[in-house]
Amino acid sequence: MNGSGPVHGRRSSSPMAPPFMVSAPGKVIVFGEHAVVYGKAAMAAAISLRSYLLVTTLSKSHRTVTLVFPDVGLDHTWTIEDLPWSAFANEGKKRRYYDMVTSLDHDLVKAMQPYLADVSIHLPEQERKVHHAAASSFLYLFLSLSSPTAPACIYTLRSTLPIGAGLGSSASICVCISAALLKQIQILSGPHADQPSGEVDTQIERINRWAFVGELCIHGNPSGVDNTVSTRGKAVLFKRTDYNRPPEVTPLKDFPELPLLLVNTKQSRSTSVEVAKVAAMKQKHPTITEATLNSIDEVTNSAHDLITSEGFDVRSDQNLEHLGDLFRINHGHLVSLGVSHPKLEHIRELVDYADIGWTKLTGAGGGGCAISLLKSNADAATIKRLEEKFQEAGFEQYVVTLGGDGVGVLYPSVLYNGTDEKGGEEIDQQKFLRAEGADEIERLVGVGLHEKRVQWKFWR
Ligand SMILES: Nc1ncnc2c1ncn2[C@@H]1O[C@H](COP(=O)(O)OP(=O)(O)OP(=O)(O)O)[C@@H](O)[C@H]1O
Ligand SMILES: C[C@@](O)(CCO)CC(=O)[O-]
């Protein structure tokens, strides 16, 4: 069944939950992508581009759950009672919200297939794959965390992140879905000011674990670094040596405001395909590949030692050059693992010719984005010329800040947007859908890039 159905305005006297929003950031991997899948360290930071999910509860006369994901053109409705609840409730299959789930249950994945089969059935294979990935991560989490008596709802998702560009779009939507569903079953406490840090950690951990399960539905073998940084925000050093245990996550306090250019080749690719390339390389040349992955680990650890060393100053030429060397070396590793792309090499060449910094791909590669660390003497005119060359090549540049907040909640979805509406401006589905492009989404509901919005709450 397709179509998003009616959306009802809510009043505070209504017994239904009010519309609310959750939001989670994308990320850049500064060092260690791919190697992190094999138990090596990675360093990643949240970025100011984010996904926003609006949850609208419908009246009791409705019994449907609808996904409205316009960024990819997905609009699908399931009837709640029709879904395969019994498979997910079976002895040995039932998961609790506090369980540590580290792999997908193949029987449950199979039980979902008939309900995914008619999602965007009319679309070409490539688009359908994108829809299926998003729909399956939602459905797996919905069936795991919710119940046949769940209220009818519309989940409307919009993101200011480019999709499939290495900036963690899939993780940010999984974090949003996980947080929304956990919020709806009322097992999240907060976020609120002065929440004890132990309680904050528990909420973040719950959201993160289920976001990881969502990521498992989208790409076969995620390390968990993307969902971890998206949930927690800020920046982390991440390492997962044993998939049956939680990863080692070291928060990087005072992550330096690196002078970075972030450029998207706009070459589409899929993370799972790029991860599979490295797996194939490892099978073909196990010793050499292992040595490359170990070398990446050393690069990441060297960067970590540097930025946490006493006296580290990103304005020091010596420190910057050290980090720049590590950018170049890490990019070389990724090239040798086969996950670069001629367009990523083109960005690197343009920056090298301008001689203003060091470049590496970020994320899974195969297209997507590159980051360039700028030298201190990079002058404005040269940067401008370079930006024009990016544009001529069809690339897109983003201005982002690093190390911002992780998952946030806006409950109810009311903001003080400087409008005349009494009690604040209610963000309903129409308004949210009408916002054109990333800038308008930011302006309408953004967590604070343009102005500090106190209504958004974070587990800090
Ligand atoms: N805004 C969105 N709306 C709907 N689905 C989305 C959205 N963003 C991401 N997705 C889902 O995530 C998939 C992209 O995941 P993929 O891992 O390939 O890219 P990424 O997360 O942007 O990159 P990386 O993992 O390298 O950081 C899409 O195919 C889609 O299923
Ligand atoms: C390529 C990879 O290392 C990063 C993708 O953002 C995959 C992962 O860690 O899951």
The chain-level structural class is: alpha+beta
Counting H and I runs of at least 4 residues, what is the number of helices? 13
Query: What's the overall average pLDDT, rounded?
Result: 93
**Could you tell me which ligands this complex binds, including any ions or cofactors?**
adenosine-5'-triphosphate, (R)-mevalonate
Report the β-strand fraction as a percent range.
Answer: 15-25%
Total domain modules = 2
Q: Segments where pLDDT lies below 50 for 5+ residues?
A: 1-14
What is the H/E order?
EEEEHHHEHHHEEEHHHHEEHEEEEHHE
Largest β sheet strand count, sense and barrel closure: 9 strands, mixed
Shape: globular
Family: Belongs to the GHMP kinase family. Mevalonate kinase subfamily.
GO biological process, one term: isopentenyl diphosphate biosynthetic process, mevalonate pathway
Subcellular location: Cytoplasm
GO molecular function: ATP binding; metal ion binding; mevalonate kinase activity
Key features of this structure:
single chain; 460 residues; alpha+beta; Ribosomal Protein S5, domain 2; Alpha-Beta Plaits; 2 domains; nine-stranded mixed sheet; four-stranded antiparallel sheet; 13 helices; 15 strands; globular; binds adenosine-5'-triphosphate; binds (R)-mevalonate; cytoplasm; ATP binding; metal-binding; GHMP_kinase_C_sf
What secondary-structure arrangement, pairings included, does this model have?
Blueprint: E1 20-31, E2 42-57, E3 64-69, E4 74-79, H1 85-89, H2 106-117, H3 125-145, E5 153-159, H4 169-184, H5 197-218, H6 225-232, E6 235-239, E7 248-251, E8 260-264, H7 271-284, H8 286-307, H9 317-336, H10 342-354, E9 357-362, E10 369-374, H11 380-392, E11 396-398, E12 408-410, E13 414-415, E14 425-426, H12 429-434, H13 437-445, E15 457-458
Parallel strand pairs: 3-5
Antiparallel strand pairs: 1-2, 1-12, 2-5, 2-6, 3-4, 6-7, 8-10, 8-11, 9-10, 12-15, 13-14
This protein binds adenosine-5'-triphosphate and (R)-mevalonate.
(R)-mevalonate binds next to α6 and α7.
